[in-house]
User: Fold these one by one.
Assistant:
Number 1:
Amino acid sequence: VIEGLRVDPACQGQGIGSRLIVPVLVRADQDGVPCYLETQTESNVAFYQRRGFEVVSDGEPPGQGIRIWTMLREATDDITGSEAGDEILDDLLGDDDPAPVVAKANAHLH
């Protein structure tokens, strides 16, 4: 369980968020478990959607004065075999070959 993940706004857009979340997504895929999250920041919704999450609810809890998006990402058999997986690897590697990163993640997680 990750209670919170935040990248300072001055450092956003540099792939830091992807580097933080990709190992979690790889592990979840290997274990065959979904990932769930909540965000109160609308711009985060697109970030997570590019990584395979889907919005399952969106609203303001009564009396809270905040908007919350709840999102779910089902496990996938191959992070490199989906559009979201390709997006994740592109964030990390640019034009580099993803195979060494996937192999290294698999080695560390088994």
Number 2:
Amino acid sequence: FPSHDIRVGNYIEIEQYNHIRNIVRICSGSEIDQVIKLRHTPIPLTPEILGKCGFVSNPYQDRYELGDIYVNYCGIRNICWIENVPHIEYLHQLQNYVYINTNKELTFKP
């Protein structure tokens, strides 16, 4: 995925030289440059990831809620999305969306 999607504070998954995959938090702009050189992948939104961000399941509406932010979930296709917001499929995109709309960082506990 493109490096311009990543900002300080985002979590992504990297593959280290020993082929072990780790979730890491970007702490500085120079880390973005370093991560781009490594094999990196976005973290897909799943119910488990949403739970680690503090979202609570609302089974009556097939969605996860955190304050005024609602993430819909389709169990059949195993995908999450935010209504009327294009292309939020990954944790870093959700982090950016929350930051832009609330001016607060999304808490994530790996």
Number 3:
Amino acid sequence: IFLLEMRFDHMNDIKPITVEDIQNSLRLDSNIDVSLIQRYITTAEAYVQGAVDSTVPIDTYRKYPQFNTAVALFTEFLYQSRGMVSDSPARKPFEITAMIIQLKGMNLNK
């Protein structure tokens, strides 16, 4: 799993993860699996939001680099482990859990 560069327009203006971000991180051509990657991003966002606090709006989460990092890592994990057949399930990266724990410790409803 490759680390993503967080995209900033201004000092504190963090952008949500895009299909292009994931494709660049995974070194994929720009026309590869666009709808699949978008579905994985949506799934990853819902997963992290549900793990932290589902009452906080998704747009609030998207302002935090920990959220976007967790979404990117989980999206990459889902993409890279698709179609794997194994007796033991693939384990999601620990960094996802670490980002979720950090988000749980923040006051996101301010």
Number 4:
Amino acid sequence: RSNALRLGTVSDQTGLTTKIFLTAKGEFRNKVQPRVVDIVPEGLTVKIDPPSQIGGGDIVRIGIEIQIPPGTPPANNLCSETAEPGYILLDTGHPKTPTLKIPVCVAIAE
């Protein structure tokens, strides 16, 4: 999967925190208020920052923090033939793209 968030193998001892950004432009940019609908594997936690205006207000940028806390149960979602991808499903608030599914390739190892 080329269009996936690739987190690789993460130790359940140390965990992982990373951040990605969602950008919106055009007439509906200020309507984009993502909220989490579903997450696989369920050990992932997602925190969505408030939108911020960039580029003179023509673009809205929203930070999305993904965390695998220490102690998260093992999971295999590495996006291989034997391991289905995980995902983060967001309700966006955008009228033309109401949902966004972000594929996540990750394994959580003991």
